[in-house]
Amino acid sequence: MTKAQATVKKLQDPFYFLREVLGIKTLTAEQNQIIDSVFTNKYTGVRSSHNTGKTFICAGIVLAFVIPNKMSQAVTTAPTGRQVKDLLWAEINHLYHNAKYPLGGQMNLTEFKIKPKWGAVGITTEPGKEADSAVKFQGYHSGKILVVLDEAVGIANPIWEAIDGIASNEDAHILAIANPSTTVCSFYKKLKEPDWNELSISSLNHPNVTEKKEIIRGAVSYKYVKEKVGKWCDEAAEHDKALKTFDFEGKIYKPNSLFTWKVLGEFPEQATDTLLSFYDVEKASERELSETGDCYLGIDVARFGSDYSVFCIEKNRSFTFKPFYHFDTAQITGEAIKIIKEHKPKKVGVDCDGIGSGVYDNLNELKNNGGFDYDFELIEIHGGAEPLDLGQTEEFLNLRAQMFWTLRGEINAISLEPIEELQEGLPQIQYKYNSKGKIQIEAKEDFKKRLGRSSDYEDALVYCNFLKYMETEIKMFFIK
Ligand SMILES: Nc1ncnc2c1ncn2[C@@H]1O[C@H](COP(=O)(O)OP(=O)(O)OP(=O)(O)O)[C@@H](O)[C@H]1O
Ligand SMILES: [Mg+2]
């Protein structure tokens, strides 16, 4: 072997490349496992908790794969353009420009070119563009190829099919990595296939957490994990595999669903009959929309004073929330008046199945007596009323079922204030078909039994979201 050949051989060792060329001295044990797996297996799937260096390691692997291997290609993707350009490719650019030696080739925002058919590219697989993106993927069918899927739970089926095509190539390596926020996705199914090597990253093992100090800058912190253990977990007397119990600082804990996927990197137990997935709700919480446009106000008044009353305010498909604990109807009315005067909603809907009717009556009286300086529609909401005719193909047991189902159809177009209760509760609302094939939402009491609190945020949201379809004049017919 000549000296030059020996150098190339050395560089082809990804650990050597990352350490000696890119100058990375701080890989975690899990990141090392991922590198090892990608270079020895065809399929590597990683489910991982938040902020543990997933995107960082994808970036390092792309450069360690492409640069030392002549005529190799890497294709990377994520469900949105922002995730491709501002996250993965920003990290690739950063590593490239901060390498210990000039690396050659031409680095752009989402493309790296050494020679024709030797380099890397980022493709977004945004909803609506799946078919186009799949065609781009089909262009990679020969030679040494790496496919990197960041945020893989959001990647659509046509892309996975195109990847199957690439994978038929002998020297193809696929790395899919994600926060395991839903089991309703191809990523979940792929990990179950025998030729996929499944790895996992839990924040509990991250050096920043085990050492209680920031060893890797910007990654998950001890403080974050400790806070979430306190907030999202209950102490348990003994270990129970089914409940995914874990040890933390000498005690045993049982995680809630959010902790399970955000901190432990495990798929949450989610019943198959849930209305929405954690992924849908997480994405809605991250989505930013302009807040100019019609305003609506939905009010869920606490039953018998034991829970929160929640106001949900919509502005142009962005929803924010105001909770009030132990307020009586007079106080809630006072808060509603303030909010109506400030935001001037076009429609205000009040849950009138319990003591909310008192709030409705107070507001109605004030409205009729000229207490507001503009006109709006004040709407009584009764979950037990007949559904409206909106041309939906499904049949609903009652208005409550229709309101929840409508949210399911619109979740990918709305923005939600990131409220932890909502992020945990909304994906756990269950539905079923009754004996007549009509959709029915679980009883409020069942939700409360499972989650230990009432569905106040969830109810206020679905009321508010549905107001655009409701009119004061619509006569409410009740289902007996
Ligand atoms: N081994 C490492 N050495 C140095 N910095 C690292 C390393 N791993 C991660 N980082 C840094 O830690 C931060 C978090 O990493 P990254 O964004 O890759 O995490 P992630 O798991 O993709 O997060 P998210 O769950 O938000 O997608 C980034 O600033 C990244 O540059
Ligand atoms: Mg990431």
Would you give an account of this structure?
With 480 residues, this protein is α/β, with parallel strands linked by helices. It folds into three domains: 3-201, Rossmann fold (3-Layer(aba) Sandwich), CATH 3.40.50; 215-270, no CATH class; 281-469, Nucleotidyltransferase, domain 5 (2-Layer Sandwich). Helix content is 38%, strand content 20%. It has 18 helices and 19 strands. It has helices spanning 3-11, 14-21, 29-40, 54-66, 81-97, 130-138, 157-167, 186-192, 207-210, 222-232, 257-262, 278-286, 329-343, 356-368, 399-410, 420-425, 444-451, 456-466, and strands spanning 43-48, 72-78, 106-107, 111-115, 118-124, 144-150, 172-178, 196-201, 233-235, 246-248, 251-255, 295-300, 308-315, 318-325, 347-351, 377-381, 415-416, 431-433, 439-441. The strands form four sheets. The protein has an eight-stranded mixed β-sheet, with helices on both faces. Strand 18 (431-433) and strand 19 (439-441) form a beta hairpin. Helix 13 packs across helix 14 (356-368). The longest helix is centred in the N-terminal third of the chain and has 17 residues, at 81-97. The radius of gyration is 26 Å and the shape is elongated. The protein starts with a helix and ends in a 14-residue tail after the last helix. The mean pLDDT is 92. Bound molecules: adenosine-5'-triphosphate (ATP) and magnesium ion.
